[in-house]
Amino acid sequence: MRLSAKILAFALVGTTLSACSGIAAKQTPKEALQTALSRQFAEDGQYNFTGEGSLKLHRADKTETSDKKHKSADQIAQRLTLFLADHLSLHMEGAVDFPAGLLEIRPEMRYQARNASIAISLPMQLDWKNTTLTTDPSALSPYTDIFSDTGINGRMVRFTLPERFKTPAKQIITALPQAVKDGYAALSEEAVSEQPMDEAGKKIRARRRIRLNIDDRSGFAMMDAVMASLKKQTTGTVAADIANLADLAKSIEHDTSKQPSLKNLYTSQTDYYLDGRGRIIAYRTSMPVLPMFAELLGAKSGETVVWAKLDYRKPKFTINGAAADIFNFEDLIRRYEQKNSSR
């Protein structure tokens, strides 16, 4: 009898999972993406992630003068920037627990060249329910303590949002999930498309690869929808401030249409990889560098590329925000004020 009950239970679970998988597979690309993104704030709001980002610059035609002994400061700076772009990369890992209001990210900047390897990490944890940001600057604090006597002494540092900003911040954070949904809903069906599975998706056993293409026009439309949703969900001065931000976004949209240097302000291409349950398990985003910045960097063009993977097992946090021995940023401000007043 017990064996039969177990077999029945497994059969029910299998049927349920198969049904969920079938529903996810039948959704249009836009429907599947909207569902996956909205679930990031609900049932799929607890996960770990890893990723990396890089800047790829495409060099302009060489315009160096014949006198190579006398290079301008701009030429030297541009050559240095291009060199660093080839050897610097950003690696990330962290965890998200949306119901608990926690986001931890551990970015690590790496410089790698022949006979050289340097890595600096700055872990940080955002607690949006208590409006605090806790960081672990142990990679840098020994040097800052030597030169400026900060008093950090290898401890973690906490930034607490001033009381007058807490209510507005909580209003915006509460309204953000719906605003994001409304923003993506404003995109056209043509902006989202099904793509054949590539090698990256096969390695992580993804079931669907959905591409989201955003240009400046659709990007501004999405921003308008987000601002309208935030304004609708907030009250008082918060709603008024959001209305002002919406007006600013409109003016930027107007300027972008007239200035080629601001072209591609919102342009991006993102491939989302979904599993059989319709969850996002990885994504790859490519964004072109604004022409004005590419020119400053001495490049013809460029792009930033981000690749990230999500793991829906229990989130693993390395920073204990409740630890007693945490250096408050407010104490650092007071320390400097006391020093200046004593001079």
Structure in words:
The protein starts with a helix and ends with a helix. The radius of gyration is 24 Å and the shape is globular. Helix 5 (163-185) crosses helix 7 (216-233) and helix 7 (216-233) runs antiparallel to helix 8. 43% of the residues lie in helices and 28% in strands. With 343 residues, it is α+β, with helices and mostly antiparallel strands.
The helix/strand class is: alpha+beta
Cα-based radius of gyration, to the nearest Å? 24 Å
Number of strands: 14
Number of helices: 10
Helix residue percentage: 40-55%
**Regions with little confidence, pLDDT below 50 for 5+ residues:** 1-23
How far the N terminus sits from the C terminus, by CA atoms, comes to 85 Å
Question: DSSP strand (E) fraction?
Answer: 25-35%
Please trace the helix and strand order, writing H or E for each element. Answer: HHEHEEEEEEHEHEHEHHEEHEEH
List the helices and strands and how they pair.
Blueprint: H1 2-26, H2 29-39, E1 46-59, H3 73-87, E2 88-97, E3 102-105, E4 108-113, E5 116-121, E6 124-127, E7 132-135, H4 141-148, E8 156-160, H5 163-185, E9 192-195, H6 199-203, E10 208-214, H7 216-233, H8 236-256, E11 268-274, E12 280-288, H9 291-296, E13 299-311, E14 326-328, H10 329-342
Parallel strand pairs: 8-14
Antiparallel strand pairs: 1-2, 1-13, 2-3, 2-4, 3-6, 4-5, 6-7, 7-8, 9-10, 10-11, 11-12, 12-13
Helix pairs in contact: 5-7, 7-8
